[in-house]
């Protein structure tokens, strides 16, 4: 059974006959101890405070039955580990990737009213985020001002707290005469112009950070902790 905050993604699961519901990872509407296993892939690194990240881990543990296990993946600060570059860094830039990176740089200079409110750099800035982004022994640099850095695709990370550009693919959204949003097919006359760029918040984890958070929980033990292609991973067992 899957859950996601996005109703559109959950609807796609339903169309494919998968069981899924709209839910919040910090408050999953399921009974405690009702799951044999839980999987959390690329979710917890989107929570913007250490307290919320810990709460998400605690919620996973709550769902597990005794003896049940949870697999957790988060993005790693160390994209080069033991002299090996991650797949993320090794993927070669296609022409499209380069165009998107150029668009990303342009997007940072767009007026605020052309960017989604929830993804503006200023709105994402809090004292807690600035404190979290200070050097923690893994090469992170202090944030110089009240703006989160915007990551450049396929490069190493220089801050633990950052925004990653996401480019809308397959068409361009524009306002119709009625005021509602219309999606025009890619390549159509109406879709000409820069594609919307959305900035997603990430907290990339340093070595040992996820494991330490998991070990701070009551009633669970860390069965395994490892690095996998640019991700820190933990397997938890409910006691």
From TrEMBL:
Top-rank taxon: Eukaryota
Assigned GO CC terms: cytoplasm; nucleus
GO process terms (BP): tRNA methylation; tRNA wobble uridine modification
Segments for region (Disordered): 87-125
Biased composition (Polar residues): 116-125
Domain Methyltransferase type: 1-72
SUPFAM superfamilies with a match to the protein in the record: S-adenosyl-L-methionine-dependent methyltransferases (SSF53335)
A Pfam cross-reference name: Methyltransf_11
Name of this protein: ALKB8 protein
CDD domains given in the database record: AdoMet_MTases
């Amino acid at each position: 059974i899957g859950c996601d905050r996005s109703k559109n993604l959950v609807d796609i699961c339903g169309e494919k006959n998968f069981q899924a519901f709209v839910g919040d990872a910090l408050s999953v509407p399921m009974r405690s101890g009702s799951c044999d296993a839980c999987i959390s892939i690329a979710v917890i690194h989107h929570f913007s405070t250490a307290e919320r990240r810990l709460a998400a881990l605690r919620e996973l543990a709550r769902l597990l039955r005794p003896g049940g296990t949870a697999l957790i993946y988060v993005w790693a600060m160390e994209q080069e580990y033991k002299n090996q570059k991650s797949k993320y860094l090794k993927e070669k830039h296609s022409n499209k990737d380069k165009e998107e990176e150029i668009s990303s740089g342009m997007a940072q200079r767009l007026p605020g009213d052309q960017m989604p409110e929830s993804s503006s750099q200023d709105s994402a800035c809090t004292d807690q985020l600035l404190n979290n982004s200070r050097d923690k022994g893994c090469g992170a640099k202090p944030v110089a001002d009240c703006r989160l850095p915007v990551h450049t695709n396929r490069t190493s990370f220089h801050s633990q707290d950052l925004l990653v550009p996401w480019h809308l693919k397959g068409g361009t959204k524009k306002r119709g005469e009625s005021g509602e949003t219309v999606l025009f097919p890619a390549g159509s006359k109406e879709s000409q112009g820069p594609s919307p760029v959305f900035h997603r918040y990430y907290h990339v984890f340093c070595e040992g950070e996820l494991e330490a958070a998991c070990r701070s929980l009551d009633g669970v033990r860390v069965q395994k902790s490892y690095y996998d292609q640019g991700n820190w991973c933990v397997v938890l067992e409910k006691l």
